[in-house]
Amino acid sequence: MLQLLQSLKISLLHTGYAKLDTAWNFDNVISPFTRLCYVTKGSATLYHNNRTYTLKEGHMYLIPSYVYNTYKCENYHEQFYISFFEEIRPGLSIYNLRSFRYEVPLKEGDHLFFERLTQMYPKRRIVNSDPKAYSHKPQELLQFNKDNAQMNTQRYLETHGILTILLSRFIENEPATNANVSTGRLNDVLVYIAEHLDQSLEVQDLAKKYHMSTDHFSRLFLQQFNMRPLKYIQTKRIERAQLLLWTTNHSLEEIAHKIGMENFSYFSRTFKKITGTTPGKYRKNQAITP
To answer: Where do the HTH araC/xylS-type domain residues begin and end (predicted)?
Structure first.
């Protein structure tokens, strides 16, 4: 497991400080990146993962990628915000491997990390918190990726270190138990699925590859990840599609092909079933907000 975590890649998107009022009121926001905020003044509410959080001063909040969330400010609040992409392998997220809390009190000195990032990246702030002010802008992301790739060693290590430390604050404490062999093998399955989303992935073939019967494999997978293998594969394919819709100008047909769904009608139906909207509407309605 540690070997997998050592492969964690984090790419900064936005960082800044926002003063928000009642206009900060949006429903059903879903993004292919992680959001993290630290509230310095006032309060607001945030809903995701079937729970409502009251944003409080001196606390940090985590919103994982591909999670529906709603947020509302009834009066006024201020926050530092950060958004970033994370992956362990293409298509494999740290959220697949660890349990997270979504609200934690700020530790002593952590405010300096937020301040430092805003000082390092003054051009990464979000100017307008209204989603309607933003459109689908893959060119902006390409520029961010280019800037990230051209960082000097010192800046890269400092940025990655700060983001890793802040993300670590939300990881649930794990019981000190002996390593579970089956769990380790299933983590390997997640990596394999992530690396072969554009290919045929049948549950019986995965079970055979990892030397299990189909029933035993499916039962273990459900116990470990609270999701059946087929549903997991579909979900990861749609998440990959969401990322491609947000970050590229590929046609919908090209994206369907890249995630291993050759039948475009099936792709559209599955996308809407999982996200509640069509691929075209998802691309059109994407927003960038603090």
So the answer is: 187-285
